[in-house]
Each structure stands twice: as C-alpha cells, then as structure tokens.
Write a structure and sequence with these properties.
2 copies of one chain form a homodimer. By secondary structure, chain A is an alpha/beta fold. Chain A has 2 domains: 2-151 and 294-343, Medium-chain alcohol dehydrogenases, catalytic domain (Quinone Oxidoreductase, Chain A, domain 1), CATH 3.90.180; 153-289, 3-Layer(aba) Sandwich (Rossmann fold). The first copy, chain A, is 28% helix and 25% strand. Chain A has 12 helices and 18 strands. Chain A has helices spanning 42-47, 93-96, 127-130, 143-147, 152-163, 178-189, 202-211, 221-231, 247-256, 278-282, 298-306, 325-333, and strands spanning 2-8, 11-16, 28-36, 55-56, 61-68, 80-83, 86-87, 107-108, 121-124, 132-133, 170-174, 194-198, 215-217, 237-242, 257-265, 286-289, 318-321, 340-343. In chain A, the strands form 4 sheets. In chain A, strands 3, 5, 6, 9, 10, 17 and 18 form a 7-stranded mixed β-sheet that branches. In chain A, helix 12 (325-333) links the parallel strand 17 and strand 18. Chains A and B meet through strand 15, helix 10 and strand 16 of A and strand 15, helix 10 and strand 16 of B.
C-alpha cells in the first residue's frame, strides 16, 4: 500500500510500504477513508534530521474495517470507524479512569510496526478498545466533523474540561489553530459566559467567533494582555486554554489568568521548563492539561456532531489526495491552510 | 515596645521600636500573647544581606485587642484574636472567593509600617477582615493549636484542598516540617485512604504517623520514589502535597504522582522555573497550590481544634521568651527544634 513518510524536515514522500496484516489476535486492519495533517506533524516537518528509516505519518483517520483478529468483538468487517490519535486497550486502570493516553498497552501510530494514518490502510492494535464505530456511511457529509474526534475536537475539549470551565465563567483561548478553535467550541459547550480568543489570523478568528468566541484579541505580548485585562475589569479570565505549546504562550497565559485561576495546556510543549516560580505561586495559579485522552471523549462528543449542535469539521479548509500530501504539509506550514484533509 | 528584627543572615535581634498606634479607622492594635517562628523565616535567616533598615519579623500570632479604630466593629478591646499570615479586608472580590492572599487591600506583616508578629504588640490593618475572635481565654491550653491557624495548619489544609484530596484516595506528603505534618492532618480530615509521608527525621515522621500517616518513606531520590511506587502497585499516588519549596522536591513530586494526578505545592518556591515539560505533559500531571489564603480556612478549621478532633499544636516542641528569639531561630535552623513558640 502507499503511505506518507517523513524523511527529514520539509521532505514528505508517499511511497510503497508493506500491506498491513493482522499480527495479534486483538488487531484489526482498516482501509482508510479520510485522514488529515495535524499541527503537531509540523514540528518534525520543520526540524527533523534526515533518516533512512522514515516514520509513517498521520494519527487521525476514519476507515472501514477490512479484517479482524479472533479476539476482536466490538467491530466487524464493513464497519466505518474512527480512531483516536493514540491506540489503547480501553480496559486497563488508566483507561477506566479516562486517561487512555497512559494506557498500559497503548502507543502511537507510525511506530513499532504500527502504521500511520496518512496512508491507504492501517493495522490497528487493540481494535476493540481503540476504534469507535460511526453510525454513518463513508459518503456522509459529516465525515470531516467526525474526523476531528481523532484529535483536535477532543484536544480542545480536554483543555476546557481539565481547566474546569463552568457555566458563566470567563475563558481565554490562546491560539487560533484548529485546536484553539475547537477549544472555543468546547468552552461554549461547557457554558462559558465570555470566551476571548487570542489570535492574529482574521479568517481563523472569524471562524472562532462563529464557534462561540465573544471577543477576539489580535494583539500580542503586553498589548494583548492589556486588552484581555480591560475586557475583564482588570482581573483576567478564570480559565485559560493554552493551545500553542510555546513558552511565550505560557507566559501570556499567566498574564491573562485571574489570580486563583487555571491554565490548561494542550499544545505539545516545545519547552523543558514552565516559568511559574514565586510570582505565580503567590497568585495561586494552577497548571493542568496535557496530552488529550481523545478515546475517553469520543462517545460523549459524537452525538453533538451527529445532531448538528457542533460543527468542528469547519476547521478543514483544504483537501488533497494522498499523492499530494506533501503539498498539504506545505500549505499548513506556510499558513495557507488551517487544516488539510488527506484522501487516499 | 520590643520587637524582633533581622539585620542579616544569622543576625536576629530584639530591639525597641515605636509603639503601634491606630493610623487608619480600620486598624486595631493588639497586645501579642503568643507568636512563633516559621520555616519561611529561615529563608532570610539563611541568606539575607545586611541592612540598617531591618524588617520586623513574624507573621503568626494570637493577641488581645487593646484599641480599635472607629470603623472596626467585629472585634473590641479585650477580645482574644488570631491573625492569618497576611492581612486582608475580607470583602473584596478575591476575599469573597476565598483567595485572601490576593486581597486588593491586603499585605504582609512587617512591611510598610505594619508590625511583625514576633514582638510585644502589632498594628493590624483591616482588623474587621483580618482578625478572628477566639472563644477561649489567653491561658487556654489550646493556644498553640489555635496559633497554627495563622499559617501552618491552614497551609497544610490548602495543599490538601487544592490537590482535591477525596475520600479513599492515596496521598504523598513531601516534607516532614510543620507544614508537611499539618498536610498529613489535612489529608486525613479529607478522608485520604493512604497517606505516605516522605521525611528523614524520625521524631517528626513519628508525629506524622500519630497525625494519620499510614506509611513513612525515609529514603530520598530514586530509592524514595521506588518505595512509594512499591506501596502503590507501581502507580504512585493520586495526590502529592509538596511542602518543601525546593526544585528537587518538585522533581520528586512528579516521580511519585500517578499519571493524571495532582501535585499541590505550598512550600515557598526557591526556584524560578518548574521542570514540567513534555514528559509531565504526556502524563497529564496537574500542578496547583500556592500561598495559602489562611484567613479563608480559619473559621472552618477552628471547630475541629476546639473539639479536640485535630491537635496541630503538637508541631511546637520548644518555647522561648521574646528576649531569646534568636535562639529560637538557631534551634529551628539547626533542626534542633521543629517549630518554636515565642512568648513576649
């Protein structure tokens, strides 16, 4: 089959790789119907050194089950399914507490003989635990929305949930990428009264307004902080959803959060240390969040997509065929596209 | 009056200072009955450079109201009162949410013309908001217990409350100082099922067992981490109460907390950055806590002292008269005493 390989920064190729086969009795093999490029794929796209053992890329996909191992009972050939961005058994102690990203048997796509999601097919470990069946057909117009359950919608929701957003509260969302926009949706779902989106790209923040942002702050640094403070009577917001992953975004988060408030970080940290010492201690600021256990949120969020209550698939603004996936990376990296669908 | 002054590291003196007087209509002046030395006093005691404008020391005290300004209505001359380690108006937005340490009019003892608590008397700003009346007389044997409401008992409780300790949960307390021991009391009050106290000083950890610790781990570093992991089936504990304030203690906290768990820090940070980058992000670890808004917990905890349910005053193992306060500092700094009462 054909799959997306990253050889080094800026060098994405589609090449032939071995067809996936059942290896464990708990595996299934699925034919991928729709995948996409993630903001987190851009970190290695920007910086990875050359390798002659390139990794299969992609960790968000919907597909049709083609084959199942003898211990797979929850899905069967022909089912349309969505996968979270890490696989998990959904039965261990961590999965039972909703922390599927810490699953004792879980792992990442594209590593250790497991395929990636930007390809024609994929071997899925722990298929019963990992896959969630979709009650639509593969030609459904809801497929892009449902694809966001793999990652960005669940990640935005994780930010809002771990931040503890409650009805009527004020929330700042830092970052106008797909996760930030989904965090706006999530904050609104949880009843936030004021949602301030900090981002500089008008087409994205405009979509953020449609998703529920009550205010947009385009300024950065001290000007941006001053704007949020002015909107909140000088206090800052009770919750901050940090959807970038850079240290500057954390500093900004601390500057716009109210004393006693909570910052949830869901942007993959590109920093080794958090600059929260004595001043943030004196302000009783909480730092929470982390990598989103998407699998734990999928059943909860899916009905809201199926009912049309939320429409997170609007973050996709381009579609490329698998053969042009490199162009998809380029579009996102150059900010010509917000998020790109890949169709095998 | 006489008061304790810190001139530089290791140089604590008792000298005459001006008698406190009412300056604002919301002030009161109290005669101090009992005060004490705090672990946090030891940071400047270890490191402060010389000054010829020495600060009045002490921020924990019980006293008798001698005089009140015309706008003070909640306390009157003759009342025995306890003060929290920061003063606060108890009416602003932050105080109403229980975050008295962020009070818009609050501040620290011993600064800006406000006296310290290791002296004969003290001017108390915002007396109505700051002071809590005690329903005992100044010769009550409960005075040391009630004195812990100024700081250490409320600080330990803040750790447990912000960590979100729930009945049956597992908790590690890092640090066997007075705050750590009070955190053990607090974890037990909140129903923790297992309380692992990490500390190396047997007389202190023995007291910790009496306060409710189910296990004591005396080893440090990797051995200590291994011991906690072994006690918890490999997982670590759901909550960690960090009662030290050093970076090493934070690293240890992360190593003994369960994935998805919460670390509450109440030790004053002696570090500018928190070493929680990508690995802690992947484990969904939450960092909370901060300086304790003691005033917000005093009414809640006082009945538990008056009823004899908790006995935090046992952390005091020495008493010195005011004239020997320097010896009190030395005893604590040399770890010959756990916590020292100062009697004017």
């Amino acid at each position: 089959m054909r799959a997306t390989l990253l050889y080094q920064a800026g060098d994405v190729r589609v090449e032939d790789v071995p067809d996936p086969k059942i290896q464990q009795p708990t595996d299934s093999v699925i034919r991928i119907v729709i995948g996409c490029v993630c903001g987190s794929d851009l970190w290695p796209y920007k910086s990875a050194p050359f390798t002659d053992h390139p990794r299969q890329m992609g960790h968000e996909f919907i597909g049709v089950v083609e084959e199942t191992g003898p211990d797979v009972h929850n899905v069967k050939p022909g089912d349309l399914v969505v996968a979270p961005f890490t696989y998990a058994d959904n039965t261990c102690e961590y999965c039972r507490m909703g922390l599927h990203t810490s699953c004792r048997h879980g792992g990442q796509w594209g590593l250790n003989g497991v395929d990636g999601g930007q390809g024609e097919a994929c071997r899925v470990p722990y298929a019963d635990g990992t896959l969630v069946k979709l009650p639509v057909t593969e030609d459904s117009p809801l497929l892009p929305d449902l694809l966001t359950l793999s990652d960005v919608m669940c990640t935005g929701y994780h930010a809002a949930r771990t931040a503890g957003v409650k009805p009527g509260e004020s929330v700042t969302v830092i970052g106008d990428g797909a996760v930030g926009l989904c965090a706006v949706i999530a904050a609104r779902l949880l009843g936030a009264g004021r949602i301030i989106l900090m981002g500089r790209h008008a087409p994205r923040t405009d979509l953020g307004r449609e998703f529920g942002a009550t205010d947009v702050v385009a300024q950065r640094g001290q000007d941006g902080v001053a704007a949020v403070r002015e909107l909140t009577g000088g206090f800052g917001t009770e919750r901050v959803l940090e959807c970038v992953g850079l240290k500057d975004a954390l500093v900004q988060s601390a500057a716009v959060v109210r004393d006693g408030g909570t910052i949830s970080r869901v942007g993959a940290p590109q920093y080794p240390e958090v600059p929260f010492g004595f001043p943030e201690f004196l302000r009783n600021i909480t730092l929470t969040g982390g990598v989103a256990p998407a699998r734990g949120y999928m059943e909860e969020l899916m009905p809201r997509i199926l009912s049309g209550e939320i429409h997170p698939g609007r973050v996709f603004d381009r579609t490329v065929p698998l053969g042009q996936v490199a162009e998809g990376y380029r579009l996102m990296n150059d900010r010509e596209a917000l998020k790109v669908i890949v169709r095998p």
